[in-house]
Fold this protein.
Amino acid sequence: MIPNIGNVESFWLNEVTECYKKNNLIYVRILKNASTFYTNLFINNEWDAIKFKDIDWERNQVFSFIQDPVVRYCKGITEDLYQNEPLKEKIVPVIKDHPVDTVILTYHTLPISLLCGEHMYKIKWFTLDSDAVSTQQLDSFCKQHHVSLDWSRDVHWNVSKFEKINFFNNLKFLLGNANHIFWKLFAKDIDLYNYVCNQKNISN
């Protein structure tokens, strides 16, 4: 039975999407986009957890991180299947046998368009082309808004084991550039990513 939570999209945005605030800066957490590292960084720098519904889009500077939607999708499936052997045994054969018409939506693969809704183009996105570039961009951005980050605190990148990386690579090989169902479900994410990359190229 579906719970009575009112507007489902509104509930997801306002109650599930995590955000962290310092002064007028707000970070929106997008899973599998370096979210573990950056969430730990902001918590350790004493940023406050807030709800998405409490963002003032006129006064706050909202930002997050983005990467190729196909790569994020594969990372998300890897995260949810790698340590769940029974689920992996059921799902992986389906992906192998039907890579051109199978899309697996999990907690870690939900589209940004669902996580951020109509606000997705109001967010300043940093591309995860490399760890070094994204951290430098963030540090510079925060300084522009008079917020300092202590990078020396106990913050670590979420380093994957070899077996997990191998699982991801095999999955990425199977899926290639994804399929028509993926392109349909993630069309808004793909458009957003292309827009961010184009804006970055213009500014360089």
In short: The two ends are 52 Å apart (CA to CA). The longest strand covers residues 61-66.
